[in-house]
Write a structure and sequence with these properties.
Length: about 350
């Protein structure tokens, strides 16, 4: 079965073709057009600009994905499209494009939840044998989905069976990276810029920056990152211009903010893993590409003898492969009533 996946929920136009066969699957193409350059100067995603870019780029990305996969439109047997959560004008672009292909070639469509796709993509490099025989032994699991728009802890019983146990009350972890980067003078997206800065060498620590770890000791599984950003802003403003513009200050701040975010994410996830007696921890979303976060989870979960899944970095940020992959697992709910597909900006898992 040849499955097309379409992702336009935020600032990435992603289209992928995956061929599923009896023994496994092959990713025939995974094309992503990133709008990073367009949004860089705004410090975040500007929804109407993003919508316009999706509209412009979808036909090109689609043609590129087909060409690379060496298939024609007629060979597509199923389309997965993200219908939420995400930016509504952007979601609609992917949906309208899907509706046209579905109508023209009579192809059934599966509506895909963006958050679930970030979770399921963890298994994209495994084989069918693994999924059929090993996956049940690895459940239940706690999934942490951390991106520019979401920070959610999800208890997973199996593919398709989830319970949201906590989420951010204000900013997402990725949004915090982005806002802090902006304060320090870096362009969107801030996560990779902060991570790179935090890796830079320093002879000694001069500024002794201490940031809060919001909600880390609270009993619930919710998060809050807007206070952390405010704490960075206070510290930044309290320093003389020369000091706050120095490379050393920026490196120390990047390290501390990354540590604060990693501490909170790891601590709350492990607390949930223990309470719900899970067998595995699963990461997903753009922030899961963060090396410091990946390493800390690896270390702590090894000590607890829990399984750890994190996607290859290219599958952490938004892409079409995660959508095609999710659509395949939910192929039973495919529909040819393409007129009825609508965007659900606040869709829950
Ligand atoms: O999943 P994603 O591509 O889009 C959303 O669904 O939001 O995530 C994008 C977010 C941005 O906030 C970006 O700064 C963050 O992921 N990000 C990172 C890293 N790479 C991307 N954050 C921390 N460290 C990284 N290496
Ligand atoms: Zn995402």
């Amino acid at each position: 079965m040849i499955v097309l996946g379409i992702e336009t929920s935020c600032d990435e136009t992603g289209i992928s073709v995956i061929r599923f066969h009896q023994k496994g699957w092959e990713i025939l193409s995974n094309e992503v057009f990133s709008q990073i350059k367009i949004h860089a100067k705004y410090g975040g995603v500007y929804p109407l600009l993003a919508k316009r870019e999706h509209q412009k780029k979808l036909p090109l990305v689609f043609q590129r994905a087909l060409k690379k996969a060496k298939i024609s439109e007629k060979e597509i047997e199923l389309i997965g499209v993200v219908t939420g959560p995400g930016l509504e004008p952007c979601l609609w672009q992917g949906i309208i494009f899907t509706q046209k292909i579905s109508q023209n070639f009579s192809i059934p469509v599966v509506e895909v939840n963006h958050i679930e796709a970030h979770i399921i993509v963890n298994f994209i490099e495994k084989n069918f044998y693994f999924l059929n025989s090993q996956l049940p032994k690895l459940m239940p699991a706690i999934s942490l989905v951390v991106s520019g728009g979401h920070t959610q802890l999800i208890l997973m019983e199996e593919i398709g069976k989830y319970r949201l146990i906590g989420e951010t009350r204000d900013d997402a972890a990725g949004e915090c990276f982005d806002k802090v980067a902006r304060i320090l003078g870096f362009e969107y997206p801030g996560g990779p810029a902060i991570a790179k800065l935090a890796e830079s060498k320093l002879k000694s620590l001069k500024y002794n920056i201490k940031l809060p770890r919001p909600m880390i000791h609270q009993k619930n599984y919710d998060f809050s990152f807007s206070g952390l950003k405010t704490a960075v802003l206070y510290d930044f403003k309290s320093r003389p211009k020369k000091e706050r513009q120095s490379k050393e200050y920026k490196i120390e701040m990047a390290r501390e903010v990354q540590e604060a975010i990693v501490d909170v994410l790891v601590s709350k996830t492990l607390k949930a893993a223990k309470e719900f007696k899970v067998r595995s921890v699963i990461l997903g979303g753009g922030v899961a590409a963060n090396d410091r976060l990946r390493k800390e989870f690896e270390l702590q979960l090894k000590a607890l003898s829990l399984n750890f899944f994190v996607p290859p970095k290219k599958f952490c940020t938004d892409n079409g492969a995660m959508v095609a992959f999710s659509a395949f697992f939910h192929r039973k709910r495919a529909t040819k009533n393409w007129q009825e597909i609508t965007a659900q900006a606040n869709l829950r898992i």
